[in-house]
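re the bet — no i am not wrong, look at it urself. input seq straight from the record:
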Amino acid sequence: METTEQIKEMVRQKYSEIALHDKDDNQASCCGASYCSVETANIMTDDYSSLEGYNPDADLGLGCGLPTQFAQIKKGDVVIDLGSGAGNDCFIARNETGDTGKVIGIDFTSAMLDKARANADKLGYHNVEFRQGDIEKMPVTANTADVIVSNCVLNLVPNKYGVFQEILRVLKPGGHFSISDIVLKGELPTKIQQAAEMYAGCVAGAIQKNEYLELIQATGFTGITLQKEKAIIVPDDILAQYLSEEEITQFKQSGTGIYSVTVFAQKPATAKSCC
């Protein structure tokens, strides 16, 4: 079994390679997978192009939702993006927070940070900063952010509870997050898990939806809200490499599956008193 550090290094190497490709290349390779469906080019990403502040150079087609669309960002807010990549969500957040706010992107991949900083310089954004670091140990002081966003990143992290603890630490009292991520419903058969991971590597670290929401509650967040949910459909031409026609039919009728969710939650405005 791979250790936490081995998983992190695998993710780092993968996204270092992805940073060198453009959006079309990344979508064609299906989230870094080695095989792609002929039925559809990409099943994970949502279309950002209609959002204010969108910059095509920063969109690598790696997300699974639109967390900044749901994040309720206000003028002057301090916003942190976890796993900021080439800066896509940061630049959209910057449009919402304006010149009086601040946006901090955190990523542990040097190639992604280089790309994001180059994009920020090109756009002339002086209140968007990119920091290298592990989101399990954010390079940010406590009670800094009004809003935290993240797009299809926590599923890659082995210690998800540790990340939610860090989010709680870094948010200001009363602050909130909006996070898009991949979760599972029901136990995927081994063959389906293999097919999904072949099609989209970001499925590999996904956990059960209920477990995901329970982690957020256990960390101490309130007002937990499911803002959006969509099924991730693995195309039949991928499934057919692993399953018979009968097995494909049984899987589709089973109610189990892979989902993209966008979740909102708030840090309590006041700390609970100790018993």
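see?? Residues 4-19 form the longest helix (16 residues). told u. also The beta strands are 78-82, 102-107, 128-132, 145-151, 171-185, 207-208, 222-232, 257-266. so pay up
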